């Protein structure tokens, strides 16, 4: 009985885990980073997102593909993250803070440009 259940549940679980980690898997097998190692090392990236947001997934996949470490805060589940998000203007998700540049739309060129800027003093919005 247990063996039959495991045979049914294990493939489903495997598919779910692969789907959740697809960006990291893709980055491992095809590293197509357009960034220098210095840009990746100095990048300070924070993603304000939710689980259900498709554009948030695009941001995650891109950052994983580029090999950029980032902090992610789910504004539906974390009250402190929601307050930080609202302090940034909170007009929709996702909001990506890259080296002080706030990005609200998924445009790879803008993300690359922000990652290559090392100025963390002023915040601007794109």
UniProtKB/TrEMBL annotation:
One of its GO terms (molecular function) is electron transfer activity. Residues 45-102 form the Glutaredoxin domain. Transmembrane segments: none annotated. CDD domains: NrdH. InterPro entries: Glutaredoxin, Grx-like_ET, Thioredoxin-like_sf. GO terms for biological process: cell redox homeostasis. Pfam families: Glutaredoxin. PROSITE patterns: GLUTAREDOXIN_2 (PS51354). PANTHER family: GLUTAREDOXIN (PTHR34386), GLUTAREDOXIN-LIKE PROTEIN NRDH (PTHR34386:SF1). This is Glutaredoxin family protein. It comes from Pseudomonas eucalypticola.
């Amino acid at each position: 009985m247990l063996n039959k259940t495991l045979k049914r549940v294990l493939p489903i679980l495997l598919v779910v885990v692969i789907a959740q980690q697809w960006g990291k898997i893709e980055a491992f097998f095809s590293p197509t980073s357009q960034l220098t190692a210095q840009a990746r090392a100095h990048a300070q990236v924070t993603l304000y997102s939710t689980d259900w947001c498709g554009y948030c997934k695009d941001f995650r996949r891109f950052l994983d593909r580029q090999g950029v470490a980032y902090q992610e805060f789910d504004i539906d589940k974390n009250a402190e993250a929601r307050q930080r998000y609202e302090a940034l203007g909170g007009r929709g998700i996702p909001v990506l803070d890259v080296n002080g540049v706030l990005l609200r739309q998924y445009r790879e060129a803008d993300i690359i440009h922000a990652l290559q800027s090392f100025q963390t003093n002023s915040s601007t919005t794109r």
